[in-house]
Amino acid sequence: MGGGGGGGAVLVRFLTRRFIGEYASNANSLYNKRLSIDGRQLNLEVFDPCSQSSEARCILEEPVDWADGFVVVYNISDRTSFINAQIILRQIREARTDNCKGDSGVPVCLLGNKQDLCHARQVGEDEGRRLARESRCHFQEVSAAEGYQDIAGLFTQLIRHVMEHLKQRADRRRYSGSKSVAKLINNVFGKRRKSV
Ligand SMILES: Nc1nc2c(ncn2[C@@H]2O[C@H](COP(=O)(O)OP(=O)(O)OP(=O)(O)O)[C@@H](O)[C@H]2O)c(=O)[nH]1
Q1: Which atom of ligand 1 approaches the CA of 48 most closely?
Q2: What ipTM did this prediction achieve?
Q3: What is the pTM assigned to this prediction?
Q4: 27-32 long-range Cβ contacts below 8 angstroms, 24+ apart
């Protein structure tokens, strides 16, 4: 989460179904939620970084190493939050490419929040869509103030993508593991078999 665009409110909407207009959000928060998706029981951990930090860089230091997916939120009526979102998306890609040996496919969702304030819009929907395309992530405009269904649907979709991505990574690791075991067996026994 993060971006300075009402990410806290989006997350609270997802976790509690409620819109809480003003709440103390001047610290990093870690939430746990048990939920069931496609018949599977999951323990979801969500880290919501404090957006008051002076640099976008600080926001991501910790979760970028352990998170399996990201939701980046900006405010459609605040261009600065959109610029922050751009920086954060770039950081996610760069950090994940360095840390995870080229694994840049971590699921990310870009949300343009406060759609109810479209009369004061500073960021076009097409700009959000373009940024998402460039960053290879999902995009949608939402309003934490107005609805639960869209936000719940987005989180559910993201979690499905995360599970699929983790499964693919595990399969890849298993496959390359079994290939190297096969190679090892060949190396150890291959020559001997020839000489028999
Ligand atoms: N009109 C409107 N206001 C919203 C919406 N979402 C959040 N807000 C308001 O925007 C302000 C900031 O929201 P927070 O959730 O605290 O956002 P933040 O922590 O500054 O930003 P993040 O870094 O994205 O978490 C609060 O006053 C919220 O009530 C929305 O969808 N519509």
Answers
A1: 25
A2: 0.94
A3: 0.83
A4: 28/62
